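Final report, closing paragraph on structural work. Over the funding period we assembled a curated collection of sequence-structure pairs, and we close with a single example.
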Amino acid sequence: MIQRLPTHVPSDAVIADNPWNGSSLAYAYTGRRVLTTHLFSTDDPDTELINQKLGDSADNPALCTAVHNKNVQYVLDFGSRYLIDLPGSEKYPALTNLAPKDGLTLVDSQGQDARLFRVSSC
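Its predicted structure, as stored:
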C-alpha cells in the first residue's frame, strides 16, 4: 500500500499518521510528508488536536483550522498493532482503527488494517 501512496497523495499534501504502527515510514519510502515523523516527536497544539479529534466532527472550527495550518489532506491508518508498546502510543486515537465516516473518505486499503483516507471535511 505504501508503494501506491504517490498515486493517491499529491506531493504537497501532508498525511496524518500514528508513528507507533509504522505509518510514518510512508515518508521514508515515498517522500510524501507525514504529520508525525517518529515515535518521540513533540506535538504542537495543531498536531495534538488532529491526533485526538480528526474524524470526530466534520464541523469543528478549531480542528479545521489545525488541518489547514498543517496541510493535512490524508490519513494513513495501519491499525493498532504497534512496533513497540510504550507510553505514547495512545496519543493517536483519531488516527487508529478508522472507518469511513463524515469527513473521512476511504481512498485505498489492503488487508484488514491498512487504510488510506482523504480528509473530505473542512
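The helical segments are 5-8, 25-30, 45-53, 61-70. The beta strands are 14-17, 33-34, 72-77, 104-110, 114-119. We thank the funder for supporting this effort.
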